[in-house]
Design goal:
Its cofactor is pyridoxal 5'-phosphate. The protein is an alpha+beta fold and 833 residues long. It contains 20 helices and 26 strands. The strands form eight sheets. It has a seven-stranded mixed sheet with strand order 1-7-6-5-4-2-3, sandwiched between helices. A hairpin with a 2-residue loop joins strand 19 and strand 20. The longest helix has 40 residues.
């Protein structure tokens, strides 16, 4: 259930499009209208709004069935007005439900005697089924503890950390302690050994999952059963097992018939399964089956007669439609064992096609298993530039809904994408999805790393991943800092120093906030040939949160020449001090300010800041196109939460990354006032990367500043101009040389008749020409040029032109000064010659 929020009086109304043929007035969005409207108008208005929903067939996040045969659709519509709880009025519907319970119980190998009816009930889904099964376990445990005269006020249940949220709801709603087995890196399901270790006298049951929501893997229920049997024998307890087979209950019997996970195991007392998942029925049907009547306490069953006859009921809700029960019975008799097996094998084959297609890209690690729910869970091998959330976001442009999510505690550093293979997901769609993923990867590779991606280019092996709680990390940081201080004091005592000053350093986040507007052609992605000039603006030209006193940073000559203006930011990053959701400011953005932000987000503005001379880049917001062709239908969002991740080595900052919270957004699409709480959080982590190497990752990316754009057309135009001028100059020189040669030949003939005596006989031998005069002249010219170039570079360095913020400026200056000093080389060489 989604919690709703009431709107204010000035909220926009619902306006009709084609329905204006029938109604010309707008309808209130959150209040019932005063007057009626024609049925055609009501249909058209709602249908138009529903067009913005995603395509259910392309919703690869959901396990829920999205297609059924037309005959079943007709049965559903024919019975949609039947209330299931009216058993006396609709006895056949009740009989169909009982048949479904018995069919499923037999499928799960329930130990039924001859003519014995199975014990189970239909629910609205596995969540309700789990609540009912959990209540049965709790009540049975309480009765046993009361009979032994022991306390029964602290029940607990053991599960893996990968359980679905309904287990957490059960524990919270019915006051049961949830004991979760933490996941391990590379092993993303519950470990049976660790689960049994956590079992105690107050454990009402151990919940095993047949088909993890995270990666589709089947947990080892048989191993769990064997270990628990041994522990029950040792302790005298009777701890049972519940199998959450919401996804795998209609898969394992057909694909893995020899796998022991169901009532063949003696400690399995109840099983839930979702009919609306791989039971192949539309949403709204689930089942819970008990091993025997003894496993369902009688006091939980209610008997009512105000609908015409005595009716036993064990549900959390009362009224519900009967159409889904009828649809489930249709599928069971229509497909039979053979039909279900064919469907599941086809799903498994399509999952294989998708998995192999992703492996061929050599960009992903496949986390899902071949035996399990037919889905493919995968993660990027290298997410240093772009992450899984960006892939998920970009795939929406193609219509695909592919979820990205982080794993539970102890594996939260792993982010996955997941594609659920349902009956309506064909091989053709699998191949098309792989092609679209490759397109997205190609597009992302052409972009600079976004703020949501880690900017670190260092090897992952250089940094150990700490899988600890926030409290443990804080404690570890404190201990490291104490150890560092102790070592400093020890050093002071050894060398006899007067004092060693160790203080909690607060590095002011003095940021250069420059918002660069990237020129855009049709679509977001284009090659470097189509880049236009970048424009730089001051950060506070947009209505961001400003500190109480904005201070300007003293700038070197290079910063002034480059146009940088560094000002203090409202973020306070205290050294080795973590912060969680620190509020920068709360603002009510006016319509004009919203319009400014919307324009900036639409044009892909991004900011740049510096912390301890380390650059950080990030986009202001995002555009949700959601496969819309018309830009007027795009949704614009402003990021309002920035997370800083800072790596340090001893007392020096080595690396800083920034990430935005994809769930913390402000909708700025509509031209209206909005409230925005701008926040940030800080996380400090230790690294082994030495301080001297912290700039390597930036130098590897490019020899030029990241915002320096190369205008190839101008370069080509300049080259052509140089060639033309060179040709003109060569022509002129050839004519001059020709005239000189003619004149020289004429003068030489005239001098042949003159008598040459005395000094004229000697000077030719003393002052003869060098053998390699041209080479010497060229060497002297080039040497003079290099000497001048070196002097210029030293002078510019001394006055502060080359500073850490402007990566690659030295190389740029070398090229420019070398070109400008070429005249010196030519003049020196020609003068000597």
């Amino acid at each position: 259930m989604v919690l709703s929020k009431a709107a204010s009086e000035n909220d926009l109304s619902v306006h009709s499009t084609f329905a204006s043929r029938y109604v010309r007035v707008s309808l209130p969005r959150f209040k019932m209208p005063e007057n009626s409207i024609p049925k055609d108008a009501a249909y058209q208005i709602i249908n138009d709004e529903l067009m913005l929903d995603g395509n259910p067939r392309l919703n690869l996040a959901s396990f829920v069935t999205t297609w059924m045969e037309p005959e079943c659709d007709k049965l559903i519509m024919d019975s949609i007005n039947k209330n299931y709880v009216d058993m006396d009025e609709y006895p056949v519907t009740t009989e169909l439900q009982n048949r479904c319970v018995n069919m499923i119980a037999n499928l799960f190998n329930a130990p039924l005697g001859e003519g014995e009816a199975a014990v189970g009930v239909g629910t609205v889904g596995s969540s309700e089924a789990i609540m009912l099964a959990g209540l049965a376990f709790k009540r049975k445990w309480q009765k046993g503890m009361k009979a032994q005269g022991k306390p029964y006020d602290k029940p607990n249940i053991v599960t893996g950390a990968n359980v679905q949220v309904c287990w957490e709801k059960f524990a919270r709603y019915f006051e049961v302690e949830l004991k979760e087995v933490k996941l391990e890196d590379g092993y993303y399901v519950m470990d049976p050994e660790k689960a049994v270790e956590m079992v105690d006298e107050n454990t009402i049951c151990v919940a095993a999952i047949l088909g993890s929501t995270l990666n589709g893997e089947f947990e080892d229920v048989k191993r769990l059963n064997d270990l628990l049997v041994e522990k029950n024998k040792e302790t005298g307890w009777d701890t049972p097992i519940h199998v959450d087979a919401a996804s795998g209950g209609f898969i394992a019997p057909f694909l893995c018939p020899d796998l022991e996970w169901d009532f063949r195991l003696p400690l399995v007392k109840s099983i839930n399964v979702s009919g609306h998942k791989y039971g192949l029925v539309y949403a709204g049907i689930g089942w819970v089956i008990w091993r025997s009547k003894e496993d369902l306490p009688e006091e939980l069953i209610f008997h009512i007669n105000y609908l015409g006859a005595d009716q036993p009921t064990f549900t959390l809700n009362f009224s519900k439609g009967s159409s889904q029960v009828i649809a489930q019975y249709y599928q069971l008799i229509r497909l039979g064992y053979e039909g279900y097996k064919n469907v599941m094998e086809n799903c498994q084959e399509n999952a294989r096609v998708l998995r192999e297609g992703l492996e061929k890209t050599e960009r992903f690690n496949i986390v899902s298993k071949e035996i399990g729910v037919p889905l493919v869970a995968f993660s990027l091998k290298d997410n240093s530039r772009h992450n899984e959330f960006e892939i998920s976001d970009h795939l929406r442009r193609f219509g695909w809904i592919v979820p990205a999510y982080t794993m539970p505690p102890n594996a939260e550093h792993v982010t996955l994408l997941r594609v659920v293979i349902r009956e309506d997901f064909s091989r053709t769609l699998a191949e098309r999805l792989v092609n679209d993923i490759q397109k997205v990867l190609h597009e992302l590779d052409m972009l600079p790393a976004r703020v949501s991606a880690k900017l670190a280019l260092a090897e992952e092996s250089e940094r150990e991943v700490h899988k600890k709680s926030a409290m443990e990390v804080q404690l570890e940081i404190t201990n490291v800092w104490k150890k560092f201080v102790a070592e400093k004091k020890k050093t002071k005592n050894l060398v006899g120093s007067d004092s060693v000053e160790v203080s909690d350093r607060i590095d002011e986040l003095t940021c250069y906030f420059c918002i660069l507007e990237r020129a855009k052609t049709h679509g977001l992605f284009f090659s470097f040939l189509h880049f236009h000039s970048s424009e730089t603006y001051r950060f506070f030209d947009l209505p961001f949160c400003a500190p109480a006193h904005v201070t300007e940073k003293k700038e070197a000559l290079g910063e002034v020449l480059n146009g940088d203006r560094l000002v203090s930011a409202p973020y306070k990053l205290d050294f080795m001090y973590d912060k969680d959701s620190e509020i920068v400011c709360k603002k009510k953005l006016s319509k004009e300010e919203v319009s400014q932000f919307c324009s900036a987000v639409a044009k892909d503005y991004y900011f740049q800041m510096y912390y301890d001379d380390l650059p950080i880049w990030g986009f202001l917001g995002k555009v949700d196109k959601d496969a819309k062709a018309d830009p007027s239908e795009y949704k614009y969002y402003l990021f309002k939460h920035l997370h800083f991740e800072i790596f340090y080595n001893n007392d020096r900052v080595v690396e800083i990354n920034a990430q935005t919270d994809p769930n913390s957004l402000v909708d700025i699409t509509e031209d209206k006032e909005v409230d925005a709480d701008f926040m940030y959080s800080v996380k400090w982590k230790e690294t082994t990367t030495p301080f001297e190497k912290r700039m390597e990752k930036y130098s590897q990316s490019s020899s030029l500043p990241h915002h320096l754009e190369i205008h190839w057309f101008s370069i080509i135009n300049s080259c052509v101009t140089v060639l033309l001028l060179t040709g003109f100059l060569a022509t002129i020189l050839m004519r001059v040389l020709k005239n000189d040669f003619v004149k020289y030949a004429h003068d030489e003939e005239a001098a042949d008749d003159q008598e040459e005596t005395g000094w004229k006989y000697i000077h030719g031998d003393v002052f003869r020409y060098l053998k390699y005069k041209s080479l010497l002249a060229a060497a002297l010219g080039s040497g003079t040029q290099l000497f001048t170039l070196t002097i210029f570079i030293f002078i510019l360095s001394l006055v502060g032109v080359f500073y850490p913020y402007n990566r690659g400026a030295l190389f740029t200056a070398l090229v420019v000064i070398y070109a400008l000093t070429s005249g010196i080389a030519g003049y020196t060489a020609s003068s000597f010659y």
